[in-house]
Design a protein that fits this description.
Layout (H helix, E strand, L loop, with lengths): L1 H12 L1 H17 L3 H20 L2 H10 L13 E5 L5 H7 L9 H12 L4 E5 L12 H11 L7 E4 L5 H12 L7 E6 L3 H10 L5 E5 L14 H23 L16
Parallel strand pairs: 1-2, 1-4, 2-3, 4-5
Length: 266
């Protein structure tokens, strides 16, 4: 039930949806003769659009997420590598009859690179379907084809295909590979998503070495792009993660509100 609740919560909090709702309410108020209310609502939408266009608001929100875990120096020997899904669109892949990658494809590339550097490591891809309905298409199934096309021996890889979110990534992955105490497992996901991912794995009793990729900001922040669409996109992903962190902490899916580095990560 919490899976559905989280989806509905994000639908309601999605900044694009909020702005559109305010704009529609403003126009409705103007048509109904509520001029002051209508102008106020339209003005708020206009001001927010100008703000995210002129200032790097999204980058400011992303930066603390992406800087939370520095890129690690990995041990000479590691026991396993797990990469989170989110880099493939399974539904569109099925409809187009070819793998369709998302903006987070760096997760897969890093996975292949580390797998080749560490032939001793066990490998795991975790990702099913995040759809509320029609979840027949699973990301892990497409990932097998993508990884094989990148030259990786997929017989080395375990594929977890039932998880629908980050919490289930951690829970089902641990159940599948059963990591032993003291083993060194590397976790690959997008840098902005790493705090929530690490929090979920820790809550599941699995200490991992964070390996963030797919950065959208420079270490000291980004200059303004003067692009409304670009600015809104950054705000979208940043707020999605901050809201996700809060929701997961409230329902007990992470070990901290804003998980950070710990001695166990190195």
């Amino acid at each position: 039930m919490s899976f559905i609740a989280s989806k509905l919560l994000w639908w309601a909090a999605n900044p694009g949806n909020v702005l559109l709702a305010l704009l529609c309410l403003g126009l409705l108020a103007l048509w109904l003769g509520r001029r002051r209310l209508g102008l106020w609502l339209v003005s708020v939408v206009t001001a927010v659009c100008l703000l995210v266009t002129v200032l790097p608001v999204g980058a400011w929100l992303l930066l603390p997420l992406e800087n939370r875990f520095p890129a690690p120096v990995l041990p000479v020997r590691i026991d396993g590598i797990v990469v989170l899904g989110g880099s493939i669109d399974p539904v569109l892949s099925a409809e187009r009859h070819q793998p369709i990658l998302t903006d987070s494809a760096e997760r897969l590339f890093a996975f292949v690179v580390l797998a080749r550097l560490h032939p001793e490591a066990k490998l795991l891809f975790t990702g099913g379907s995040a759809a509320l309905v029609d979840d027949a298409e699973r990301e892990a199934d497409v990932a097998r084809t993508v990884l094989a096309g990148l030259g990786l021996d997929v017989d080395r890889v375990s594929f977890e295909r039932d998880s629908r979110n980050t919490y289930e990534n951690a829970l089902f992955s641990k159940r599948l590979v059963q990591p032993k105490p003291g083993e060194r497992w590397v976790l690959i996901t997008s840098a902005y998503h790493m705090p929530r991912a690490v929090g979920c794995f820790r809550a599941a009793g699995w200490s991992v070495i964070p390996y963030p990729v797919d950065y959208g900001t420079a270490p000291a922040g980004n200059p303004p792009t003067f692009s409304l669409l670009g600015g809104l996109d950054d705000v979208h992903w940043a707020l999605r993660e901050w809201i996700g962190l809060t929701f997961y902490y409230v329902v007990g899916r992470t070990d901290a509100l804003f998980p950070g580095p710990a001695k166990a990560d190195s």
